[in-house]
Design goal:
By secondary structure, this protein is α/β, with parallel strands linked by helices. A hairpin with a 4-residue loop joins strand 2 and strand 3. Helix 4 crosses helix 6 and helix 5 crosses helix 6. The longest helix is centred in the middle third of the chain and has 16 residues.
Length: 192
Amino acid sequence: MKMPTEQEMNEVITYACGITALGLLAMAATDKGVCFAQFGKDEASLISELKAEFPNAELRASPSCDTPELDAWINALDQYISQGAPRPELPIDMRGTAFQMKVWQFLTSTREGDILSYSELAACIDKPTAVRAVASACARNRIGVLVPCHRVLRGDGSLGGYRWGLERKRALIDLERERDEGPKLVSEPAKA
C-alpha cells in the first residue's frame, strides 16, 4: 500500500454541488485548481466518491462566501453544457500516473468537435499498442467535461463507455457537434 505524501496528508479540498443540464455535479478544487468534477444521482454518493478519490485530504464543503469560485465554475460549466457558452478555461489539478497524465493532457488539447477512437488516441501519444491502457485512463478521469474523455469513441464509431453514463456522453458529443460543423477525426500522432 502506498504511503500518502506530506502534501496529501495536509491537503485541503473544497467542494460544492450544483445542478446542471446533465444532472447533479460535484466539483472540488485544491489551491491549484479543479481536481474533481463528477456527475451523480445524489450529493451523498458524490461526496463518498470524492472521499474515495482523495482519502487523505481534508474535505470542506464550500460556503459560497468563502470560495465563490466553485459556484462560478459550476455555473460556467453549466452555461457551456446548456447554453453554448465557450468551454470554461478553469485551472485543473490533474493527478494520475505518468501515462494517465499524458492521455488527459492530450485530451485537453483537442478542439471542441474533435472525435477520435481509443486506438487513434494511443497513436497520438506515441503508444499505438496501448489501446486498453488509453481506455482505462479515460475511465479513471475524475474531471468530467474539463478533461474531455467524452470525445473518445470505439474504433467502430460506437460510444464505448463513459464514467458518467452513455446518455451524458452522447449529449456532450451532440452539443459539440451542433456548435461545430461536425466532428473531425484526429488521426495524426502528436509530435514530441
